[in-house]
Automatic annotation (TrEMBL):
The keyword GTP-binding does not apply. Pfam families: Exo_endo_phos (PF03372). Keywords: Hydrolase, Magnesium, Metal-binding. This is Exodeoxyribonuclease III. The keyword Transmembrane does not apply. Residues 4-248 form the Endonuclease/exonuclease/phosphatase domain. CDD domains: ExoIII-like_AP-endo. InterPro entries: AP_endonuc_1, AP_endonuclease_F1_BS, AP_endonuclease_F1_CS, Endo/exonu/phosph_ase_sf, Endo/exonuclease/phosphatase, ExoIII-like. PROSITE patterns: AP_NUCLEASE_F1_1, AP_NUCLEASE_F1_3, AP_NUCLEASE_F1_4. Belongs to the DNA repair enzymes AP/ExoA family. Its cofactor is Mg(2+); Mn(2+). NCBIfam families: exoDNase_III, xth. Gene3D superfamilies: Endonuclease/exonuclease/phosphatase.
Amino acid sequence: MKIATYNVNGVNGRLPVLLRWLQETQPDVVCLQELKAPQEKFPEEAIRDAGYHAIWHGQKSWNGVAILSRFGEIQELRKGLPGDDEDTQSRYIEAFINGVVIGGLYLPNGNPAPGPKFDYKLQWFERLKLHAAGLLARDIPVVLTGDYNVMPTEQDVYKPERWVDDALFRPETREAFKTLVAQGWTDAIRKLYPTETIYTFWDYFRNAYGRNAGLRIDHFLLSPQLDKRLVAAGVDKQVRGWEKTSDHAPVWIELADE
């Protein structure tokens, strides 16, 4: 079972890139972030023609998350992260697919920090930790994946000294991620590649991709039931070099059958 996550940075504007990548790599399940499209504007027909069923949680101009699956109709579990009924931002979607609970998330950026946006990021993180702990308590296979907007360590960022005051790298942000993982989750990429330099995002400016001046901010967290089924993981870095592409590259894992 191959599961991927991809911040598409506009699902309609980048649709040719998304469809090409789906055709070339054929993941079984895909979590998308930053759809930047209202609910009625999601390109369901094109996705279905590519061989995928889809559920999505859209929002006009901003945010938006989706899950695609080649396993047929998707059993949706929830749209939105519990803990704040007044939160209207489309940042979380959850489904049961092929025996696995898959949570697709787009964690707030939080800049400028400090400030209200950073406060919202940390509050969202607290809600995520509560929900994640509840999922672990159910003793079922779970994947929490998406754009976390966190570089967990200095190893995950090009020239970390330049990012000290950024919301993606501030101590509070890294501590929140660390305490989430400490609940019992496995950082899939780091389990298989503990010392390698791996990035998933390269800015559009200053030839960041060409210089490999990147960040690792798209993550897979696996529950203990899936930790031992992890057999491969990687970043489709070449996609970042395509024409009119996202500033993120797709990230993927492969799980062995039970």
